[in-house]
Amino acid sequence: MNTTVLILLIVVAIALIAIIAFVAIRASGRKKQERLEADRARAQELRTDAATQGATVQDSDLQARQAALEADRVRLEAEKAKARALEAQQGAQVEQARQEDRLREADRLDPDVDTGADDYDPSLAHPNGVPENRSVPIVDPTRDPSTGQPRSDTTP
Length: 156
Fold this sequence. Notes:
mainly alpha; 1 helix
């Protein structure tokens, strides 16, 4: 083997290595390009999904705000109802006090009612004109019921 053949073999081997390297680099570049394209496609899918979810998130956010507004409205309504109930209760108490005042006045005027008795209660009913559970004084016919003094028109 002479040196020309040896040089030729070395040049062919280097050319072969260069071609193999070139093909390998091209294949690697192609795979990288394919991977980049796949990554771009996946990124686009994720963006599309995110946009779809964005609409869902907006809907959920809107529903949450509407629910909060409804809760505030119901809370305000409940507060108003509570205020009306308190006002009605106060009105009932005022009416009850007026009724008790009228009963006290009637009891004060009624000679059959002892308003100084321990068991005196103006809130008790007067079904037959005489208050219940009241000390009813025994009327002494010989005494004047309004003054308690002996009558001048009675004879013994």
